Hints:
Blueprint: H1 2-9, H2 12-32, H3 34-42, H4 46-73, H5 80-91, H6 100-111, H7 117-141, H8 143-147, H9 162-173, H10 176-189, H11 201-228, H12 235-255, H13 265-307, H14 310-319
Helix pairs in contact: 3-13, 4-5, 4-7, 4-11, 4-13, 5-6, 5-13, 6-7, 7-9, 7-11, 7-12, 11-12, 11-13, 12-13
Amino acid sequence: xxxxxxxxxxxxxxxxxxxxxxxxxxxxxxxxxxxxxxxxxxxxxxxxxxxxxxxxxxxxxxxxxxxxxxxxxxxxxxxxxxxxxxxxxxxxxxxxxxxxxxxxxxxxxxxxxxxxxxxxxxxxxxxxxxxxxxxxxxxxxxxxxxxxxxxxxxxxxxxxxxxxxxxxxxxxxxxxxxxxxxxxxxxxxxxxxxxxxxxxxxxxxxxxxxxxxxxxxxxxxxxxxxxxxxxxxxxxxxxxxxxxxxxxxxxxxxxxxxxxxxxxxxxxxxxxxxxxxxxxxxxxxxxxxxxxxxxxxxxxxxxxxxxxxxxxxxxxxxxx
Length: 320
């Protein structure tokens, strides 16, 4: 069954159809809330929106660099243009319900560049694990600074603490010797050949560095939006809240795999945290603005990657 699906995905018609559906769903999330979005923009000045959009693009681009570092460490050092096409276009698979579409889309796009599917899938899984680990570290290390100790009475749900307890476990999983054994077991269960190149500490550290830079960009995005609404919090404390709060929201959204790109769950958690600084109404503006700008960043980078791949576009035109 899986082999038939992968065979279908090699068809230019199917690939084109997938791209249209993914783009359509991403745009639909924005169009659906267009009235609320218009009200939100009315409360934000143009400078804040443009700065937040630039930070959104940086967030997605840096996440792609984290993934590229893992893929290079596994033995496939793609040039930036090829890596951008695989990651940013494949990233649109997140908007189709079910996490598997992102894996499959990236695996097929990377296959065109000579990267084995198992290596692409392993790189994405490791990059997501790195993101989970760095997010957990931000939640435990930064969020308490914003909350004056991080007690439940400060306004953060008591259940949020589990992310902090998970961070040390994830750090153990990122030890090369442990992670390489885990990948070997997973590939054996999937009846795939083992990886030719094991992960190294240097590659994982590079990926973690890019991931932390990505979190910094999106944390600054939330900070810019919240600050533009006139939060009374000191700038440093508000920045810590934005960094740690978004990291927590991302982890929860990622775990809700049936929601496209974590839609719904991520917003609920981020709103609960940001409301501490800007109130419920302000939190709604920040959350909606953040989601729309990150969706716009996904679309801009995907379309930009396609625009730099004339060979791919020519093949699609010939297929018509």
